[in-house]
Design a protein that fits this description.
Strand content: 25-35%
CATH class of the largest domain: Alpha Beta
Radius of gyration: 21 Å
CATH topology of the largest domain: Rossmann fold
Order of helices and strands: EHEHEHEHEEEEEEEHEHEHEHEH
Largest sheet: 7 strands, parallel
Shape: globular
Length: 314
């Protein structure tokens, strides 16, 4: 059975998020599938060109509308649902963006969403984690309705560049809702990499003791050109905002290098980093669970170790 897959692009208006290339990798593993990408934006030229360069993409559909300036789920979803006609699958990344948009698309199409695809077994058979990743569930979905799913980006490598897909203008042709509108965007501009797509991440836990002490995590991250993360305990204690939380109820990430500093390694946190390539743990408790998963472990006082590490890094 052939499959036509539409991947919803995540972007910031000028740059394509790497989560899109990872969703394309997942889509290309659907047997007999062809993969298209849809870019919704006010001005999609730059993002569409980047999407067209992803290997494995058949074509890029562009929907330009002033209403698409901000990625509002209530605005995006009706357009994606309309464009889904003729497609057997609609995929989006399992990021904050995808988790916001894709359930609405599924509801508009009258189907149940498949969440967090981590492997493809067939055109309508997928694997996804349950119980905080402690068990893997094989899901088989009906073949007589579109498959709407989010892709667990930590489970897939980004599709490489090298493609030259044609770019086509598309018109969703639907009335957009007026009950939801963009007011403002607030958030600190740090200049650091995005936590969900960073190749290096430095995370701190409750052992830091205060928001002021957490500054040493930022300092090390800046030395390494890394993103900053935190355990749930650190977030709950008010050391950092919750958008830095890594774990089951935070962000699921898969960096090449992950520093867990002052983090005990509770199952909730480990769920978020299980796909990290190299885990470095620093903790004064030699019995901390984090050392069972760490590739490199250092037992000691983080307030002594981190300044020495920074000094060694130059």
């Amino acid at each position: 059975m052939s499959a036509r897959i539409l991947v919803v692009a995540e972007h910031d208006g000028s740059k394509l998020n790497v989560s899109t290339a990872k969703a394309v990798t997942c889509a290309t593993r659907v047997p007999g599938g062809t993969v298209d990408v849809v870019v919704l934006a006010a001005d999609a030229s730059a993002v569409a060109a980047q999407a067209a360069a992803i290997a494995g993409v058949g074509k890029v559909l562009v929907v330009e509308n002033p209403a698409n300036q901000e990625p509002l789920a209530a605005v995006y979803a009706p357009q994606v649902a309309k464009l889904a006609a003729g497609y057997s699958h609609v995929f989006g990344p399992s990021t904050t963006f995808g988790k916001d948009v894709m359930p609405r698309v599924a509801a508009l199409l009258g189907v149940s969403q498949v969440s967090d695809i981590m492997d493809v077994e067939g055109t309508h058979t997928f694997k996804r984690p349950i119980y905080a990743g402690n068990a893997i569930l094989t899901v088989e979905v009906p073949t007589d309705a579109p498959v709407v799913a989010t892709v667990r980006i930590a489970s897939f490598e980004a599709a490489p560049e090298g493609g030259s897909a044609p770019i086509e203008k598309a018109d969703a042709g639907v009335a957009l809702p007026s009950h939801t509108r963009f007011i403002e965007r607030s958030g600190a501009t740090t200049g650091r990499p995005d936590l969900q797509s960073a190749t290096r991440v430095v995370s701190g836990g409750r052992a830091l003791g205060s928001a002021d002490n957490f500054k040493i995590i930022y300092a090390l991250a800046d030395k390494l050109g890394a993103a900053v993360g935190a355990s749930r305990a650190a977030v709950d204690a008010g050391y950092v905002p919750n958008d830095l939380q890594v774990g089951q109820t935070g962000k699921i990430i898969a960096p090449e290098l992950y520093f867990a500093i002052g983090i005990s390694g509770a199952i909730q946190h480990m769920t978020g980093i299980k796909d990290a390539r190299t885990i470095v743990a620093i903790n004064k408790d030699a019995e901390a669970p984090i050392f069972e998963s760490a590739d490199i472990g250092l037992v000691g006082d983080l307030f002594q170790i981190l300044p020495e590490l920074e000094k060694a890094l130059g």
